[in-house]
Please model this.
Amino acid sequence: MSALSAFHDLSPVADRFREDVLQGLRLPRKTLVPKYFYDDVGSALFEAICALQEYYPTRTEMALMQAHSAAMAECLGPRCALIEFGSGVSRKTRLLIAAANPAVYVPIDIACETLRAAASGLGRDFPMLPVVAVCADYSASFELPSLARYGARRRAIYFPGSTIGNFDPDESVAFLVRAAKVAGPGGGLVIGVDLRKDKATLEAAYDDPQGVTAAFNLNLLARINRELDADFDLRSFRHRACYSEPHGRIEMHLESSRDQTVRIGAESVTFRAGETIHTENSYKYSVQEFQALAACAGFQSRQCWVDAAGLFSIHYMEC
Ligand code: AVI
Model:
């Protein structure tokens, strides 16, 4: 990490994880919150998903970044504070940092070790760039450390990867309202959004033959075993991914292959054969649908870049 860098650990406590898991598994339709996919094992599995042939979003967004990062930098203007939600390994951000030369980069991620490693790598590659890494759950409110000393001219939020699609539309608006508060009046937003497309392409992207997405989904149960003293038998749950056209979303589930009772600490949860845990939604939007959604949070669309095959979009918006 460069001499100017700082690391702030605001990560949620284990108790919150336990409460969320038990609350979700007690619902008539069992659910788990997708943010819990991203412990360090889950973050590594997600990186493996991004490299899959079937998973088109990462390479398509990367190609858009390569083609248009100079135009994006022009939108951001010189010396902005670049704040990234869910920064992971900060791969796409390198292109934006190189083009925009921000006054400070603030990566925010829930996976502390991944964040620490990414911040160190950036410190090596951009030795003059102050990096203020914040380990936090950005799906809830949290206090950003003061950035006043870096003398940025404005703030810009970077939210790539179509992670916005993992929120339901009302949660997306709530998230964008929080993002607008962080950016402040006149602040910018560069956001990657996966586009609506045919069912076959989508289902292949979320159920690859190599089983990487299945391993990512099942790691959620493995994480509960590791951290909450539970005894999920991973062999008796199967990964399911299906596209719901009316909702415009991929749904991921874990399906119990038999009647069973699972212990979580001192509690227990029963499953019928065929019952599922709904683990993730991944919403897909048309350009106009997303612009309308963001407008509900006060963001005006300024530019939008889409690849030639119409798979993925990157929007530049201002509040
Ligand atoms: C992080 N997020 C945008 C991914 C997605 O495509 O919804 C998570 C993912 N789940 C399965 N594959 C990838």
Q: What stands out?
A: The first strand starts at residue 6 and ends at 9. Residues 218 and 319 are 39 Å apart (CA to CA).
